[in-house]
Amino acid sequence: MSSSIHPGTIVVIDDDEINLKIIELSLSEKSYRVISYKNPEDCLKSLTAETVNECVCVISDYMMQAMTGVDLLKHVHTLDPALSVIITTAQRSRAIIQEALREGAIDFLDKPVTLEALYNTVENACNQTLIKRRNAASTQSLLAAKSHDYLEKVETPGWKQKVRHFMLAKHQLGGDFVSAFETRQNVKYCILGDVSGHDIQSALISSHFLGILEGRRMSNEVINMGDVLMNYNKQLLEERMDSEKSFASKSISLSICSIRIEESTNQLAVINAGIPPLYVFSDTPGVSLIHPNFQPLGWFDNEGYSPVLYDLDQVRMIKTFTDGIYEYAFKNDWDILSLVAHIEKSSQEEVNALLADCEDDILSLSIAFSHDEENAIPLIYQEFAGDQAKQIDAFEKRWKRSLALFFNNPRNPKIDRMLLACREAALNAMNHGCKQAADQKATLSVSYNPKNEILEAVIKDPGEGHDFDVEERLDNLLEAKPGQLGIALISKLVDEFNAERRGATLILRNALNADHKE
Hints:
Helices cover 37% and strands 25% of the residues. With 518 residues, it is α+β, with helices and mostly antiparallel strands. The model is unreliable at 1-5 and 477-484 (pLDDT under 50).
């Protein structure tokens, strides 16, 4: 046999000595290094965990006295699942093919073996072994990186208490990642990412993108996240075009939410490229959503990524999350905020049990800009149009399920009264504030302050409101005109009732630790 120019050894097993010699000589003429065995047991004695890495392909006859080629294949794959095995047989039947493929054979050769088929099949098998081994090595490296929290790094010196995140990986590779860090220019970034797919290609995209950020962070270079996203989008688009031309592996897209905090300029900048709506809570009662204003990276060409800007002192809290937890909340008819709040206050065992049937990775991120005790916990936020009054039963059911999740299904009449008050307030907002118009939107936000055990609801509509006296309406309940009973009823269901903007904004509060006022 000549010395090998191919990176590895080919092992051939056949108890037919003539066929064994033909294959050995034919491969040797192509400068392969070949080791042959007439007995499969002798092969297995020499092919050990220490020597298997030198081998790149095994060619085994199917029907041998000591064992079948499939039996030998099983032994080989206990040593190295990536090692390609080719089965040769003179009695090729569907049953033999199915059995061998099921156990991981890469191909078949009919006896007598033709040289063209032998060379083509062996070359492909050797290449497949090398590819699988490289992928396995990359997978181990990525898993090692993941075990060291490379895809889950929250490093914001002097600011760490403000950033809370929860991550539950449902897949070994790919999926979601989070990174929070501070640059040398004292600019803080929180980055949330979600890569399509859960394979090695997806994991490599995550690691590569985070590596780019890490390189920028460690240098003196100012990070321009818009430029980073634009350049990475171009790279993914080029890879997509190459994969479509060659019919190679599927193309990958990357959803990114970048949150930039610069305290020196009192500025908050958010870029949302494909992540579910980001919630921004202000100091005054109210919530704004930053919907995806850009497509995920790798889908479409984009000339630039401009951020949504806020004054930092106007923001109390930010919450964002990837598709997995968002879709799981929708599947169970929970508000996403209640699910996140429940996760953040629960033990790991409770969370694992709750999310046991979730199929995607789970990742949420919360940033608080004021002291934790000042922050009420957001539980519900919903926008509804003026023409959605007929859906109020479904809305109320969802609110009830959401609060039951967070409060662990308590039998508290104060919660029930608050839900009824929210129902009436929502109907009032849709019918009067929105005038039943599909293009007019009202909002409901519900939060809970654990310090004083206050449940608060804020209902806003775009109307001008109207003058009214709640006490006067209470005194004249029996004479109330249609549409006037709602406000009076709402005020009787809650401990505290405030109307702003002439009633276009209602603020309702119930103390859950006290008896309802009489």
